[in-house]
Write a structure and sequence with these properties.
heterodimer; A: about 220 residues; mainly alpha; elongated; B: about 260 residues; two-stranded antiparallel ribbon; 7 helices; 10 strands
Chain lengths: ~220, ~260
Amino acid sequence: MRKGLIQATDAFERIVHWSLAISCLILCITGLGMMFHSLNFIGTLMGGLKSLKYVHNFTGVFFAVALYFTIRMWWKEAGVFSMPEDLEWMKVAGGYVWHVDKVPEVGKYNPGQKAFFLAVAGCGVIMVVTGLIMWFPLSFPAGLVRWMFVLHALGFVTIFAFFFVHLYLGTIGSPGSLPAMLSGWVTRAWLKKQHPKWLAEMEHEGKLVVYGEEKDLTGHGHHTA
Amino acid sequence: MAEKTKLIDLSKCTGCRGCQLACKQWNQQPASQTAQLGTYQNPPDLQSSTWTLIRFQEVADKDNVKWLFRKDGCMHCTDAACVKVCPSGALYYTEYGTVGIHHERCIGCKECITACPFDIPRYDPITDKIYKCDLCLTRIEAALEPACVKACPTGALKFGDKTDMLKLAYKRAKELGGDASVYGDKYVDGTHVLYVLPEKVSVYEKLPLKPSVPLSIIVWKDLLKPLSLLAAGGVIAGSFLHYIIHGPKLPDEDQNQKGGE
């Protein structure tokens, strides 16, 4: 830790994030193992494809719990668009795709992150519901279960693709972002570039937790929820 | 190897259920306790231990009651929905065009049960696997006919090369005339079990009028499955291009921290 770093996330947020992320990753890998015969060997690593099925199903239960906390925790910050500034941001794609002199300032989460959150939350719920029905297919009409397979695959197409976007923008695509989810402490320069409005608001309200500054050590809780 | 087909001529079936028993005997499947349900059909449905079943049906005519028997079981589709969905390769096409099953590979996901347009596979919760007719694959491999065919006393069941069975089926349907028809060769790219039905198809219970691989299964396996890799690949390629063309989003000031960690 270094003096002057700013706390962007609290421990609870990071635990929930990584619970969701790791279970999601395990689900993707085990799911792929069942989706493609050529990837059946992933099951071998777990003691057979049947074991893989159980790993997938029970990780799904863990994922559902993590998803519940994720949605409850981030719904207000990342689940609701605030107009018109979010629209302005979207019009210039946040300055991510072409050069923009002045990117409109948005809150703690930009519309891209909000879209990602909504996609994960929406598809996550679809995955949990369809997955549960697929787990007990004999308790439902076959015609319904068949379309659950389709929705489950559709959710996977979305989540799997979004996963790589998230991976890119969380690491080399936006250097300085990763610490927000590792230690939780980020640099002021990164905040100024990524979340200037949030930084200004927090400073204005005196809620900013800066490392090395004695004040506000009580503010370790979940500050914005 | 020539494709093999079983022909079921229902006009010759007397409902003796010799085939049902022979199937259990050859495949070493136990009988299960049943109750009288007011029908001669017994057991009431296909089971994980009952791979073929004579369905009994009473159909009222003008002043007559007709008794219909139909031997139900796996149709051995050429384009089999069960093989399409099976995640482990437990269900597979044999060299005879039939659908075989490697039980040691079955993970009990039950996807085939949902996908099958004929509602054939059955799940056994004790072994956590599914079961269905494999047209006595081991017997076919030994140049024997399936156990059910061997047991049939009336000649309602025949087994042989697909082309011969088709010829025989159409000849018999023509002989019978009236509502008689051949069922199986026009669906799912042709089944390896053919019926000669003396009555209209719609008369028979649990026999689909136009069986096909369900649209949902096609969307799932032929569209979304490849799309998942395509989409992910596109995103990875897009991210790489973004990095080398547009570049990452960097904080404005110079930082003295190490790396982008």
